[in-house]
TrEMBL record, chain A:
InterPro entries per the UniProt record, alphabetical: 2-oxoacid/accept_OxRdtase_asu, Pyruvate:ferred/Flavod_OxRd, Pyrv/ketoisovalerate_OxRed_cat, Pyrv_Fd/Flavodoxin_OxRdtase_N, Pyrv_flavodox_OxRed_cen, THDP-binding, Transketo_C/PFOR_II
Keywords assigned by UniProt, alphabetized: Oxidoreductase
Domain Pyruvate flavodoxin/ferredoxin oxidoreductase pyrimidine binding: 261-477
Keyword set includes Glycoprotein: no
Residue ranges of domain Pyruvate/ketoisovalerate oxidoreductase catalytic in the record: 23-210
Superkingdom in the source lineage: Bacteria
Protein name: 2-oxoacid:acceptor oxidoreductase subunit alpha
Automatic annotation (TrEMBL), chain B:
Signal sequence interval, chain numbering: none
Annotated Thiamine pyrophosphate enzyme TPP-binding domain residues: 55-202
Keyword terms, alphabetized: Oxidoreductase
SUPFAM superfamilies assigned: Thiamin diphosphate-binding fold (THDP-binding)
Name of the featured protein: 2-oxoacid:ferredoxin oxidoreductase subunit beta
Pfam families, sorted: TPP_enzyme_C
Transcription as UniProt keyword: no
InterPro entries: 2-oxoacid:Fd_oxidoreductase (IPR051457), THDP-binding (IPR029061), TPP_enzyme_TPP-bd (IPR011766)
PANTHER family, A to Z: 2-OXOGLUTARATE OXIDOREDUCTASE SUBUNIT KORB, 2-OXOGLUTARATE OXIDOREDUCTASE SUBUNIT KORB-RELATED
Length: 617, 336
């Protein structure tokens, strides 16, 4: 592929959205573009958006699948609010995404799909390419399908396989436009179609044809460059939240020297964690696809009782079903990690859309007084560290821990500075091996004075045979007890031991050191809140940002932090669940700001809201 | 095993320090005593034995066994035991459950444990009533049964637990009776020797809410006419009747004369064991006890363990080195 002969413009950031029918391979196209971009050293943030239907009728609005990638020569926090470029593989993709485009955005459309029939499917009476309705955009009509088929005329692949390669033509064209290195894509094609050399060749040809089309046709006069971002030195890979979470769990198994047992029932958007972990048996990982959500956590708890790192992964509906077993784990005081990749509820809700509305359930959604630890990752790569932290708390303090991820971080991706394995926390545990009283008895509920954890005495340990269960236990002995004073003591002890778990203080980012307004978030809203705060500061406004990773127990300094600001704003993708906790616990007049559309906050939405608070109080 | 026999455990070693709190006269006492007396035979150290139960009268059982034990949640014992057994092949894991626990609230876990053939010994104490909640009908109560929750008679048809287990692909299916210690222990012995799920239904008398439910097959005056003792390699008969397979019929029949079929629990086709289970209904008129089915199929535990072991065998490097490789897999780039 020859050197570009066209005008080259420098940009600092670009947001591209690839959109097409769910069968058009848009996720893969976006993923490859992201990988090329990562190789170049730009900072990246991505967000896929796919329909719940596996294959909605072709060419319809419900069948539109898209992938957005934001890349820049500086560090970025979100996948971008509005695309600068839309690649629309059919009329449905255009119609579904047009409202998100700012005036002046580039639109690359596959004209071959703008047939009367396809236009009618989405309610276009006239082709928007011809009726002047796209006048405010820079439209680049490209006959993607026929150009791809033309390039493959001599290749010998079927028409169907040829048409399928049109996404590689589109990728080639975009790769040319944004001067992306393409070697990783060619290698990827060789791996993906290793058993079909004809398809390797066809897809490479399509990619090259797309690249050459950009270079030779007059339709594209400018080529862009985005210089590498200044990023911390080290080795990076691009990673999604679900992948990072799975790797974090493997790392926890390695660092604890424990076998990992995952019990899971397939559920969107958590299933990818099960898929990923099932590949890592060599680390002593056992994955069990259970008959239901209850069995999934039951098996994980059974494995934990036997001395494994027990984990169950699910989404909100699954956590609801697991509630009784979580309470049992609380009563048994055994380590257990429960991952909730939140999605829009209630009920089945919108399984492929994001929400943070399971916080109340995580904190309070069980019968009886049933406290546990809750943590939430703030970004895709942070899921790795959050998984390790969840395992650390569970193992050290012998408690179930709920990890609240969500669809936004689970499926979004960003560059991840790979940690050095040696620097990961040491999670080794000590099992009980001997009686723990002077008279040689073993008391299963005699606590460690420092961690308040009871001994983890696993079956197979001679001399420590004991019985545990869901009935209230007498302090120390663990025998069944209906004694009123004992119950009160045990309830208060279970609460106290969770509250006593030491968690790091919350950091406040207040570069001007005189902010009056604090914006407090948790979990996946970190990116858009951070981007909004930066934008405000660039415009000379002052604002402080604090972000919670630990939601139970809350950081010890949180009350003091909150008291230091005149106004505390809490943006959440729910109806104000953290805000209610903050108000109840600290008597702070926290102002909730809520969006429950199934979509993440845009930085612009938060910027405008926060600007109003900063200026008008 | 030779060294474990030197343990010289006795029934007393399996008694915990907890006071047994079933109602006086409950059939559970007899089962507990039989199990405690049988346990030393296993020649397994106490610490390697775990009893897991759900909720219900029977589920108090683990508290009375001086082994490891967990009294868990209603219906969930098979799921919890599956995780334990699959991750700890060195343990002998027993599930104690009841007709409500196993067949009503926990039905799903029971059938899936059986189809997976998890290496569990499942003892279902069937008293055909809810005892702990004080007398409601259960999924094995006979249709029309009058209880606190069914004053006009139950409208539900009962499960035949053994038919259900066979439908769930169980590899070992047996039935015994609380009051027949010798028979109970012989069934426990066969169950313990079985690799994979062993499902044992134990008819158990609830003398408070369903007293005498099994008298027909317990009372010396009537039992010989109604109780069919299945013995491997022996013709199946009851009183003066034979159990035969009439030509052209799908099932078995109890009749005078004809050639009694010879019992073979190792028949692969579950249709035979299923036909045996259909001899008994709610009326207990012709009720087989003994081992109905005992066939070999790889256990879930074995398969899962082998996958992990194979993967570990093929791997090279320390866990930390492997983890480093895993983190650095795929397309990486380095910034200097």
């Amino acid at each position: 592929m020859a050197a570009p002969a066209k005008r080259v413009e420098q940009l600092d950031r670009v947001v591209i959205r690839f959109a097409g029918d769910s069968g058009d391979g848009m996720q893969l196209t976006g993923d490859r573009f992201t990988s090329e971009t990562a190789q170049l050293g730009n900072d990246i943030s991505t967000l896929p958006n796919f329909p719940a239907e596996i294959r909605a009728p072709a060419g319809t609005l419900p069948g539109v699948s898209s992938f957005q990638v934001h890349f820049a020569d500086y560090d970025i926090l979100t996948p971008g609010d509005a695309p600068n470029v839309l690649v629309a593989m059919n009329p449905a993709a255009l119609k579904a995404n047009l409202a998100d485009l700012p005036a002046g955005a580039d639109i690359i459309v596959n004209t071959d799909e703008f047939t009367r029939r396809n236009l009618a499917k989405v309610g276009y009476a006239e082709s928007p390419l011809e009726d002047g309705s796209l006048a405010e955009y820079a439209v680049h009509p490209v006959a993607l399908t026929s150009l791809t088929l033309g390039a493959l005329a001599e290749s010998g692949v079927s028409k169907k396989d040829g048409e399928r390669a049109k996404n590689m033509f589109a990728l080639g064209l975009l790769s040319w436009m944004y001067s992306r290195p393409f070697e990783s894509t060619l290698r990827f094609l060789e791996r993906k179609f290793a058993k079909r050399p004809d398809l390797v060749a066809a897809n490479k040809t399509a990619f090259q044809a797309g690249w050459n089309y950009g270079e030779t046709t007059e339709a594209f006069s400018v080529r862009y460059e985005i210089k590498p971002a200044k990023m911390q030195p080290g080795t990076y890979r691009n990673i999604t939240g679900n992948q990072a979470l799975a790797l974090g769990l493997v790392a926890a198994a390695v660092r604890s020297r424990l076998p990992l047992f995952l019990g899971a029932y397939p559920i969107t958007p958590a299933s990818d964690i099960l898929h990923e972990l099932s590949k890592h048996k060599r680390f002593g990982v056992t994955t069990m696809q259970a008959e239901d959500e209850i069995a999934a956590i039951g098996a994980a708890l059974g494995a934990a009782y036997g001395g494994a790192l027990g984990v169950t992964t699910t989404s909100g509906p699954g956590v609801a079903l697991k509630g009784e077993t979580i309470s049992l784990a609380i009563a048994l005081e055994l380590p257990l990690v429960i991952v909730d990749v939140q999605r829009a509820g209630p009920s089945t809700g919108m399984p492929t859309k994001t929400e943070q509305a399971d916080l109340n359930m995580a904190l309070f959604g069980r019968h009886g007084e049933a406290p546990l630890a809750v943590i939430a990752p703030k970004s895709p790569s942070d899921c790795f560290h959050a998984a390790l932290e969840a395992a650390r708390i569970a193992l050290t303090y012998r408690t179930p821990v709920i990890l609240l991820s969500d669809n936004y971080v689970a499926n979004g991706s960003e560059p991840w500075l790979l940690p050095s394995v040696d620097e990961l926390p040491d999670l080794r545990v000590e099992f009980a091996t001997a009686p723990n009283t002077e008279d040689g008895r073993f008391l299963p509920y005699l606590r460690d004075p420092e961690t308040m954890a009871r001994p983890w005495a696993v079956p197979g340990t001679p001399g420590l045979e004991h019985r545990i269960g869901g009935l209230e236990k007498a302090d120390k002995t663990g025998d069944i007890s209906y004694d009123p004073a004992n119950h009160e003591f045990m309830v208060r002890t279970r609460q106290a031991r969770i509250e006593a778990i030491p968690v790091p203080d919350v950091d406040v980012e207040d570069p001007d050191e005189n902010a009056q307004v604090l914006v407090l978030g948790w979990g996946s809203t970190y990116g858009p809140i951070g981007a909004a705060c930066r934008a405000l500061r660039q415009r000379g406004l002052t604002i402080a940002q604090a972000h919670l990773r630990h939601l139970s127990p809350l950081p010890a300094n949180l009350g003091e932090v909150l008291a230091g600001y005149e106004k505390v704003v809490v943006p959440e993708m729910n109806l104000g669940q953290l805000a209610a906790v903050i108000r109840a616990r600290y008597l702070v007049d926290a102002v909730p700001f809520n969006q429950i559309s199934g979509l993440p906050f845009t930085a612009a939405t938060l910027e405008s809201m926060l600007e109003d608070v900063v200026k008008n109080g | 095993m030779a060294e474990t026999i030197a343990l010289k455990l006795t029934a007393k070693d399996f008694k915990s320090d907890q006071e047994v709190r079933w109602c006086p006269g409950c059939g559970d006492y007899a089962i507990l005593a039989a199990v405690q007396q049988f346990m030393p035979e296993l020649a397994i150290p106490r610490e390697n034995i775990v009893f897991v139960s759900g909720i219900g009268c029977s589920s108090r059982f683990p508290y009375y066994m001086n082994t490891y034990g967990m009294h868990s949640i209603h219906g969930r014992a098979p799921a919890i035991a599956t995780g334990l057994s699959a991750s700890r092949p060195d343990l002998s894991v027993w599930v104690v459950t009841g007709d409500g626990d196993a067949l009503s609230i926990g039905g799903n876990h029971l059938i899936h444990a059986l189809r997976r053939n998890v290496n569990l010994k499942i003892l279902l104490f069937n008293n055909r009533i809810y005892g702990l909640t004080k007398g409601q009908y259960s999924p094995t109560s006979e249709i029309g049964k009058i209880t606190k929750s069914t004053p006009a008679g139950s409208a539900d048809s009962p499960f035949n637990p053994l038919s259900l287990a066979l439908g769930a692909e169980a590899t070992f299916v047996a039935r015994t009776i609380d009051s027949d210690r010798k028979h109970l222990q012989s069934v426990l012995r066969a169950a313990a020797e079985h690799e994979g799920s062993a499902f044992v239904e134990i008819y158990q008398n609830c003398n408070i809410f369903n007293d005498g439910a099994f008298d027909l097959i317990k009372d010396p005056a009537t039992r010989d006419e109604h109780l069919i003792r299945l013995e491997q390699g022996q013709p199946i008969t009851v009183g003066k009747y034979n159990v035969v397979h009439p030509e052209g019929s799908f099932g078995l029949k109890v009749q005078e004369g004809g050639t009694p079929i010879v019992h073979d629990a190792t028949v692969q086709d579950p249709a035979y064991a299923f036909a045996l289970t259909r001899l008994s209904g709610s009326d207990l008129n012709t009720t087989p006890i003994g081992v109905f089915r005992n066939v070999r199929r790889p256990s879930y535990d074995e398969i899962v363990r082998k996958q992990v072991l194979d993967a570990k065998t093929q791997a090279t490097g320390s866990p930390e080195e492997m983890l480093d490789g895993l983190l650095n897999a795929g397309d990486t780039w380095t910034i200097l």
